[in-house]
Amino acid sequence: MMRRALTAAREARDCGEIPVGAVVAQGDRILSVARVEREKARDPTAHAEILALRRAAEALGAWRLTGCALYSTLEPCPMCAGAAHAAQISRLVYATPSPKSGYAGTLHNIPSDSRLNHTFPVTRGVLEGEAADLLREFFREERHNAPRKSSDTPQFGTPEATI
Q1: What is the mean pLDDT of the chain?
Q2: Residue 53 near residue 65 (C-beta atoms within 8 A)
Q3: Once rounded to an integer, what is the mean pLDDT over residues 132-156?
Q4: Whole-angstrom Cα distance, residue 153 to residue 138?
């Protein structure tokens, strides 16, 4: 399942999106596959996990995804971890942690927060190296190819000021 999520992540990269892919499966049956589509849709919520959960719910004809697992190439952000909780998935599997936005064990742990009405197990590190390399390569390329904009220069203090 994670290999299929990585394929979706590569498809996202090839479309100029952040390379994150997700799969929702019920046992061995894939219900949905998604990739990030924020740029294409101009939608800040078009994360791979959100789209995969929506499509899986549509495939099942129910919003409750009990008995399903969500596979993601990147640790879910607060929104995606919250959506997994709301969908009542039974399991989360992710490849690489997200040190700046991870809400499945890094910055917070929605899946195991006992204050919530639903918790679910998390498996971390499945094909972590491949997913991390894909993200590092994407951001390295983005930084290298990014045109310098006047907005990149601080508008306060001296021209040497850095943000």
Answers
A1: 91
A2: yes
A3: 70
A4: 23
CA 53 to chain centre: 12
Number of neighbours of residue 18 by Cβ within 10 angstroms: 19
State the Cα–Cα distance between residues 74 and 37, nearest whole angstrom.
15
The active-site residue out of 37, 49, 130, 137 is: 49
Phi, psi of 146 (to 5 degrees): -65, 125
Q: Over the stretch 49-67, which tens digit does the pLDDT of each residue have? A: 999 999 999 999 999 999 9
Rounded-to-integer distance, Cα 83 and Cα 118, Å = 12
What is the pTM assigned to this prediction? 0.87
What is the average pLDDT across 65-85?
A: 98
Buried b (16+ CB within 10 A) or exposed e, 96-116: bbbeebbbbbebeebbeeeee
Active-site residue 49, yes or no?
Answer: yes
* Other Cβ atoms within 10 Å of 123 Cβ, number: 13
Q: Is the dihedral of CA 24, 26, 27, 31 positive or negative?
A: negative
- At residue 41, what is the residue type? A
